[in-house]
Amino acid sequence: MNDRYLEFTHSSFGKSLAAMIGLPTPPRLKRADGPWESQPLDGKPVLVGSSRGATLVGPLLSALSGAGATLRIVPEHSGLAPLKEAAAAQRVTVHGNPAEGAGEPRNHAVVFDASGLSSPAQLRELYDFVQPVLRGIAANGRILLLSRAPESLQDVAAKTASTALRGFIRSLGKEVGKNGTTANLIEVPTGADEAIDPVLRFFLTPHSAYISGQVLPLAAPQTRGVALPGSLEGKIALVTGAARGIGASIAETLAREGVKVIGMDHPSAEGGLGETMAKIGGVGLALDVTAPDAASRIAAEVGKNFGGLDIVVHNAGITRDKMLRNMPAHFWDMVLNINLGAILKINEGLLKEGFRDGARVVCISSIGGIGGNAGQTNYGATKAGVIGYVDAMASTFARRGGAINAVAPGFIETAMTAAMPFGPREVGRRINSLSQGGLPQDIAEAVTFFASPAASAVNGRTLRVCGQNFFGQ
Ligand code: NAD
């Protein structure tokens, strides 16, 4: 569905009217228009900084220069020493951040290695670095912090400082969204330093346009040295609910990266499924996710033609909204069975037969399972359940060299949200830092990233793709 207000405020009349009477103007987000590239930051200026004692500067500089970025620094910043040493060791060229008005292109991204923060007082280094450069960030820019997760730190002062970063980034995301800029925090455990390369390629590019205010903790990677571009070539994926909406976009985005997609949907959606699969050279499987023999039928279909599954995306989902006091039992049962029960059963079956070693699973949760919505006790329960489920199953998948994660969409422009009454729909769209709904592609990009073995340091996590929706954390 079209966001008519956004379109209006970008028309010449709408622009002037909005400026005259002070209406908010949602930014036009820049989204990816092709597959993952080997040099996605080619020639783009990235301002990079560090705190004293920072330990991620080496992998950070090599990832940024490998991605083609033009590196800039703030020569007078007090935390520069680790960065300068790493730049000298790697022989990468860094340039001084140009003064505003010098006619140089604005910074596409500002990246700060905060892994050396050892006390709340040292947070001043973060302020000193970020505060003066905020105005110089280009539209659709990126702010990214790297830190050590508080849970991995023993020292009280260091743990406090590291936790403070979470509040900093959530607040900053709410400040900078007006021009499409996002702000996120990646928490890197010791031993996972090299794993930041693919993560930076995702968070610093248009593939993550609708993700802001998020904290993503990494774990020890399952596989090392896998480059993001090309990492999905030839993989086999099953996507449920693939006929339309978010599922169709996930299927298309996986196919864009070279994945062979088996799209599954309810037999009543067979027509739409056929059309989506025809576009991407995929295979349709008309099957209800709640069918008692769903797992064995998937395994049979996949075994016969492809040998096994590398990726499963549990996307099929429904809403049956009613205040709990008026909710009939069949509304409860349907939503619980499709959105949650089927995921557990299908995975259980595929773990016995169907998954290849290294299989990666992505489940679709929802902001509704985080913030909660009146009239959605059934839906909210399933979507929160998904978050607990991926956490609980992470070690099972890790033992097989794979992973299981979830993506929690906010308000996304699909048939599901088009069916909402006008008022709640308009509110749902605007209550986030980017003042607009996301597109199915935004969810598909995050799912496709999680599906890649290059994202092997992400396991058991739920990433919100919601433009930093103001509900929940
Ligand atoms: P949609 O209704 O457009 O598509 C859902 C698809 O799932 C349909 O093709 C449908 O036929 C299929 N499906 C439903 N029941 C099925 C069953 N029993 N077996 C097989 N397939 C079945 O919905 P969407 O907006 O694209 O949502 C996709 C997922 O994203 C859902 O899990 C939804 O809860 C979640 N989500 C959506 C939004 C949003 O704003 N649209 C927000 C948060 C989460």
Quick gist of this model?
This protein is of the alpha/beta class. The protein is built from 15 helices and 14 strands.
The portion of residues assigned to helices is 25-40%
Shape: globular
| Unreliable residue runs | none
| Rounded radius of gyration (Å) | 22 Å
Number of DSSP strand runs: 14
Give the SSE order as H and E letters.
HHEHEHEEHEHEHEEHEHEHEHEHEHHHE
Straight-line distance between termini: 27 Å
Major beta-sheet overview: 7 strands, parallel
Number of helices: 15
Q: What is the residue-mean pLDDT, rounded to a whole number?
A: 95
What is the strand content?
15-25%
Oligomeric form of this entry? single chain
Structural class call reads: alpha/beta
Structure description:
The chain has 473 residues and is of the alpha/beta class. The chain is built from 15 helices and 14 strands. A 7-stranded parallel beta sheet has the order 3-2-1-4-5-6-7, with helices on both faces. A 7-stranded parallel beta sheet has the order 10-9-8-11-12-13-14, with helices on both faces. Helix 3 (57-66) crosses helix 4 (80-90), helix 3 packs across helix 7 and helix 11 (329-352) packs parallel to helix 12 (377-399). The longest helix has 24 residues, at 329-352. The chain is globular, with a radius of gyration of 22 Å. The relative contact order is 0.12. The mean pLDDT is 95. It binds nicotinamide-adenine-dinucleotide. Nicotinamide-adenine-dinucleotide binds at residues 240-241, 243-247, 265-266, 269, 288-290, 315-318, 338, 364, 366, 409, 411-412, 414-417.
